[in-house]
Amino acid sequence: MAATAVRAAAAAVTAAAGSPASLSRFRGALVAAVVGDCVGGEFEGAEEVPMETVLRHLNGLENDTKGDATLEYSDDTAMARCVVQSLLTRGGFDEQDMAHRFAKEYSASPGRGYGAGVIQVLKKLASPHLSDVYQPAREQYNGRGSFGNGGAMRAAPFALGFPEQANVKKFARLGAMLTHSCSLGYNGALLQALAVHLSLQGALELPQQFISKLITEMENVEEDDAARSDARFLKEADKPFCERLYRVKDLMGRSTVSIEEVISELGNGIAALHSVPTAIFCVLHCLEPRECFPESYGGLERTIAFCLALGGDTDTIACMAGAIAGAHYGIQAIPQSWIKCCEGAEDADVSAGQLHMLYQQLSQSDSSDIRTGEKSYGLWTENKSNGAEKKNGTQ
Ligand SMILES: [Mg+2]
Questions:
Q1: Is 151 within the bounds of a domain?
Q2: How far is the CA of 82 from the centre of ligand 1 (A)?
Q3: Is 376 a known ligand-binding residue?
Q4: Is 76 annotated as a binding residue?
Q5: From the CA of 303, how far away is ligand 1's center (Å)?
Q6: Nearest by Cα to 7 from 297, 299, 198, 206
Q7: CA of residue 150 to ligand 1 center, whole Å
Q8: Where, per UniProt, does this protein localize (predicted)?
Q9: Please, are residues 231 and 194 in contact by the beta-carbon 8 Å criterion?
Q10: According to the annotation, is 74 in a ligand binding site?
Q11: Looking at residue 358, which CATH number applies to its domain?
C-alpha cells in the first residue's frame, strides 16, 4: 500500500476506535479476546489448518441457525473473567481475592480445558489454610514453576484496569505468578498486557515504533537475575522475549510471510515464549489487507483468521491477539454475528464498560493513592483499606 493510503487507513481506524483509551477500545479488547478464545477452540491442537477451512468456519458464524452463544469459552476466558471481577470488586489488585476466584471458578466449572499443571495449583489455592497464595505455583515442576501461557492468556484486563504503564507491568506479572512462577511464564503475561496497554493508546498506528517500544521495555524486564537464570536453565537466548520480538520485527520487514515461517520462527505452542510474540506478530501482520483474506475483512477479522490458520494453541493465540487488535480497532470492528455466537462475549462488553469507569477514576486520582503494603498492591477506597475486612472478604 502506498504511504498515503496507509495513513488514510490509519486515520479511518482512529476515527472508528476513538481517542486513546476510549470506551470503544476497551470493549473491543475484552470482547475480541472472548471471541478469539471461542472461535479458536475449533482448531486447538490442529497441525495444519488450511485458510479455506478457517474462512469456512468463520463464514459459518454468519449463518442464522447459529447464534445464541453456541461456541463455548475455555479456561482463557474463565480466568480472565476472574481477573476482571477481582479488579472491579477490589478496586485494584488483591492477590488473595484473585487466587480465591480462580480456585472457585475451577471447582464450579472444571471442564474448560485447563492444563494438568494448573489444575494442581488451583486445587491448592482452594485450601482455606493457605497463607501464601503464590506458594502453590512456586512448588510446580520441582520448584522451577510453569512457563506456559496461562498467565498471558488472562493478562489483558490488567491493561484495562490500570492507566499507568508501570502498574500494568507490575500487576500483570503478579497476577500471572499466582499460577506461573517461572519468569518465562510471568514475563509473557507482562508482555501481553503491555501490548494491550500500548494498543489502547493508539500505538499500533505506528507499527515500527510499537514493536521497538515493546523491545525496549522487555530489554529492561529481562535484565532481571531470575529471568537470566531461567533462560539459562531452559537453554533459551539470554533475553528470550526480546530475541523473539526481534524476530517479529524481522518478519515485519518481509514482503511475504508464510504460515510455516511464522510457526518455525515464533511458534504456536502452549509456552508463553512460543505464543505471546506470535500473537503480537499476527496483529501487526494483519494491519494491512492481504491476498489470503476476503476483501470484505477488516483488520480484526484478518487477525483472528490468521491466528486460527496457525493451528496449535489457536484459542489462546487468537484470544491474546484479539485483545491487542480489539484495543486498536474498537468494538465496531467485531462482526455482530461473531459476538452472538460466543459465550461470554456480551458479559465481556458489560465488564469493559465497568473497567473503563475504573480506569477513568484512577486516571484522575493521584498515583500516590496506590497502597503498596507487604502483601497487597491494590488501589483501595477508604472502606476497603482495612486488612481484617479484606481477609474476611476472601475466606
Ligand atoms: Mg483455552
A1: yes
A2: 15
A3: no
A4: yes
A5: 18
A6: 206
A7: 8
A8: Chromosome; Cytoplasm; Mitochondrion matrix; Nucleus
A9: no
A10: yes
A11: 1.10.4080.10
What secondary structure, in 3-state letters, does 18-86 show?
Answer: CCCCCHHHHHHHHHHHHHHHHHHHHHCCCCCCCHHHHHHHHHHCCCCCCCCCCECCCHHHHHHHHHHHH
Q: Confirm or deny that 24 is annotated as ligand binding.
A: no
| Number of domains within the chain | 1
The residue to which cell 489457536 is assigned: 314
370 assigned to some structural domain? no
Task: Give phi and psi for 271, each to the nearest 5.
Answer: -75, 145
Asked whether residue 81 is assigned to any structural domain, the reply reads yes
For residue 312, being part of any structural domain is answered with: yes
In the reported structure, the alpha carbon of residue 32 is separated from the centroid of ligand 1 by a whole-number distance in angstroms of: 15
Q: Is 64 annotated as a binding residue?
A: no
pLDDT in single tens digits along all 395 residues of the chain: 455 555 566 666 666 788 999 999 999 999 999 999 999 999 999 998 999 999 999 999 987 555 566 899 999 999 999 999 999 999 999 999 999 999 999 999 999 999 999 999 999 999 989 999 999 999 999 999 999 999 999 999 999 999 999 999 999 999 999 999 999 999 999 999 999 999 999 999 999 999 999 999 999 999 999 999 999 999 999 999 999 999 999 999 998 999 999 999 999 999 999 999 999 999 999 999 999 999 999 999 999 999 999 999 999 999 999 999 999 999 999 999 999 999 999 999 999 999 999 999 999 985 544 443 333 333 333 333 332 333 232 22
Cβ < 5 A residues, ion ligand 1: 74-76, 113, 315
